[in-house]
Amino acid sequence: MKKYGLIGYPVGHSYSQEFFKKKFKKLKLKDHSYELFEMEYLNEFPALWLKHGDLAGVNVTVPHKEKVLKYLDKQDASAIKVGAANVIQKKSGKLIGFNTDYMAFRESLKKWIGDFKGEALVLGSGGASKAVQAGLTDLNIPYNQVSRNIKGGDYTYEQLKSNPDIIKRFNLIVNTTPLGMFPNNETKPEIPYKKISNGSYLYDLVYNPEETVFMKLGKEQGAKTKNGLEMLELQAERSWDIWNS
Q: Is the pTM of this model over 0.85?
C-alpha cells in the first residue's frame, strides 16, 4: 500500500482527497490511498511518519507551509525560492520539501490574464502569500502586500480603511488568506471594495465555496473574478509527478 495525505488545520474544507481518489481510480491504483491528517501543532509531524510507515508523501496546507521547513532533511529549489513547502516527498528515508503552489499560481494566472499590464495587491503574508509573490515576480508583475501589521507587508488593512483610494492603483488583487473559506463563508478580507476599479481582476486562492464574498463584492464593482480550484488541481498534478519521480 502506498499512502499519501494532507496535513494542516483545518483540512475538512479541502478537495485534495477527492481529487486523488478520482486519480487513483482512473489509473486503477487500488493499492494507493490519500488521507486527511488534521494537525493543529507541527510537533506532531515527526510522529506521523513513525505511525504511518507506508506514507510516501504529503501535501501541506495552512497554517504549516513555512514552519514545516525545519522538519525537512532537504529543500528543493522551489521551496527555497518561496520560503515555504506545500509538498513533501519521502525518498530513501529522507523528507524533501517542494513548492508547487507558486508554479501552479503562475500558470493559472498567466492563462487567465495573459500579458497583464498593471500592479498587483497581495492580501496576506503567510506561506501562500509567498508563493503568489514568487509567481508574480516570475511574470514581472510589480506588487505590494497587505498584512495586519506593517512589518508583514507594505500596507496594513487599517491604512486601506483610512485611505481607501490606495486600492484604485491596483488592477489585480489576490487573496491569499483563508478568509471566506468553508465553513466561515461569510468572512472576507477587510478592504475598500467600493473603490475597486471596473475591469480589475480578483483572484481568490480559496475554492470552497466556489464564489467567496471577496469575489462577489468585487464582481459587483465590475471586476473579473477567479477562485483557486484550477490552482489546486495544477499543484496536485505536480505533487503527483514529484511523488513518482
A: yes
